[in-house]
Design brief:
- With 147 residues, this protein is an alpha+beta fold.
- The chain folds into two domains: 2-67; 71-145, Beta Barrel (OB fold (Dihydrolipoamide Acetyltransferase, E2P)), CATH 2.40.50.
- Helices cover 36% and strands 30% of the residues.
- It is built from two helices and eight strands; from the N terminus they run βααβββββββ.
Length: 147
């Protein structure tokens, strides 16, 4: 059985993306103020860096923000039982620490429904599992083998 903490998901999928979006906004404001009030011309390298870094930070913040999780609590958990039929890697995933190891979250398909999980661990395709899942955000808080 693997159990994951709600607060870990909340920090990585809600708090951290909001902090990244705020930092992006502040970086954009600082760049625009520098453009407006600085008497020396902006170097081409600074302009290119701003044009690359600000959209990258914005895309990372927006892509990892899970707005559905903001409205769910651990009391909303429901049990689902099914067979793992697929595992999909995420683009630019948030990293988690699970029992001291750095893990990469993924999407796991259980009976044609995709769920987000911190790490699949030793579970494989074809395993019959029972999961505790938050229904709106489809985040797995625990997974247990039925074998």
């Amino acid at each position: 059985m693997m159990t994951f903490e709600y607060i870990d998901y909340f920090n990585k999928l809600v708090v951290l993306p909001i902090v990244v979006l705020i930092a992006t906004f502040l970086a954009l404001v600082a760049f625009l103020l520098r453009c407006k009030y600085n008497r020396t011309p902006i170097k081409l390298a600074e302009f290119i860096a701003a044009c690359l870094v600000i959209p990258l930070m914005l895309s990372v913040g927006v892509s990892s923000l899970n707005t559905r999780l903001m409205n769910e609590k651990t009391e909303d958990v429901v049990k689902r039982t099914g067979i793992i039929t697929g595992v999909h890697k995420q683009i630019l995933p948030a990293k988690f620490y699970y029992r001291g190891d750095l893990v990469t979250p993924c999407f796991v398909t259980i009976d044609s429904m995709d769920y987000y999980i911190m790490t699949l661990g030793n579970y494989q395709l074809g395993d019959e599992v029972t999961v505790d899942v938050l229904p709106r955000s489809r985040i797995i808080l625990s997974i247990n083998s039925n074998a």
